[in-house]
Amino acid sequence: MTNILIRNGTVVDGTGAPSYAADVRVRDGLIAEIGQNLDPAGERIVDATDCIVTPGFIEAHTHMDAVMWWQPSLDPLPGFGVTTAVIGNCGFTAAPVSDDPDVRMEMVKIFTFFEEVPIKPFLDRLPWDWRTWSEYKDSLDRNARTACNIAGYVGHIAIRLAVMGMAAWDRAATPDEIKQMCAHLEDALQAGALGMSSNLLDDDSEGRPIPSKMADDAEWTALFGVLARYKGTQLQVILDTFFHLEAPEQMERLGRLARGTGVRVQMAGAGALLRFQDDIREKTWAITQRQKTEDLDFWPSFGHVPPTTALNFFSSSSFAQANEYVWHEVVQAPTVDAKLALLNNSDFRARARDSWDNKAYKQSLVANPGMMLLNDSETGAGPTGLSLGDLATQRGVHPADALADWVIANGVQSIVSRTPHPMMHEKTVEMLKDPKTVGGISDAGAHGQMLCGGGENILLFTQFYKNKELTLEEAVAVMTGKVADHFNFADRGVLKTGYRADIAVFNLDEISEQPLKRVFDVPDGEGGNTWRFTRDAAPMRLTLVNGVPTFENGAFTGALPGAMVGPVVQRQAFEAA
User: Fold this and answer.
1) What is the Cα–Cα distance from 73 to 500, expressed in whole angstroms?
2) What is the largest CA-CA distance in the chain?
3) Which of 33, 196, 252, 474 meets the CB 3.0–4.6 Å disulfide criterion with 25?
4) How many other CB atoms are found less than 10 A from the CB of residue 28?
5) What value does the mean pLDDT of the chain take?
């Protein structure tokens, strides 16, 4: 561990307080001193002239759960100043798991489908030497070395499957099963989990509501009761603001069940009120505003960047999640020849036209071919640079047929990108400033062949600060002190003497938004690699994790000093309960 003196920088401490000129001394992984003109004491000197010195950034919503086992650098996070990543979101976690290997496989299949993580390395690279979440945490401590600190939820879906097996898909839990679920949750909270994550959004590749959507009020009430005994933990839940548009009803239900418990609830997906349909947006926004005035500790979470995803024909869940399961058959077809056979089949095409017109959600990408951009051709046959809607109009054919013809000509490795969702920019700024929201939601680590959430944090400086919509102090706090307070982290997120030396140093004139690029470094489980999207570094001048440089001189250092971190928890009447 290197002792470092960061000199001549402008400190923005993460609390929202005004910036000031100061040096920062790092010793034994901690912030030892902050002040002006500190005398060197044998440390390595880092000159931060013309640089901003901030707490390391916290990625509040990632799906690095699997990725971190084969990509411990968590690329590109170190180059963007990230020092802590939160995993286990949306109900998808690697623990607990059932003793039944078929049920464990079911959990893996759910995770890999929805988060579009390759299944073979997920099965092969994880040691799977756990059943409970506490055993999982112990395994991470022993076996996982990462460039960032890791904090994690325990997933409601994983808990249900571990207790109920395949029946978790089909029915409400019995009282005895609920008791076992509560025991799993208590095990995780005692071991340092942030809380429980759940999912009220998704249906699977066969159109089945996922297991957490089968939980009745009795199950929810019992789980809220466990969380209530561990003050400082929380429920994180992703709402249906896109598919069945049930978010308003879900928010009302959660409000009714949480009222009086004191449990903090982070509502992921509530940020969709910044886009999509006017009716769901206005209903969701009105409930959010009302719940702020009630006896509820509810925090909407959201992304400040409009989703700019890509659609491929090997791993994408976009068709299935658009309720367009005919085209999803192409994704599921195991070989290139099988995919091409479908695309050339007249029966497939007839079914695809019908499904496209009559089954796909009207708000989905599939139902809006003008938003599907034909830009990335495998063969170069083209045409490229236009939308699927334009191509269908030019050729006088149905969009499904136009897409099939284009993929046949351009190759099944081609990618269809999408135009960004329109955002309510003023509302986005308002939410970033709101003291009870969680911003910067990025999904980093998931959907690797659709997007790269890592690095989107930098737009808070290059866009919102540059355009004078946020102060520098506000932009930093969104990613540091504010989110650390939300998760009840006691020793990071703020530059303060005695806190962990998670620090980012950067020059505002040197950082920029970076475009997506493909890299072939994802193990395919067959001895080779497949590709994912990433981006070049911002870059930071320096990123420190627990006092150790993870990014410096324009590159990842190779250091893996990350540790498992958790919230400060006050256990209330646990034994009596």
Assistant:
1) 20
2) 78
3) 33
4) 11
5) 92
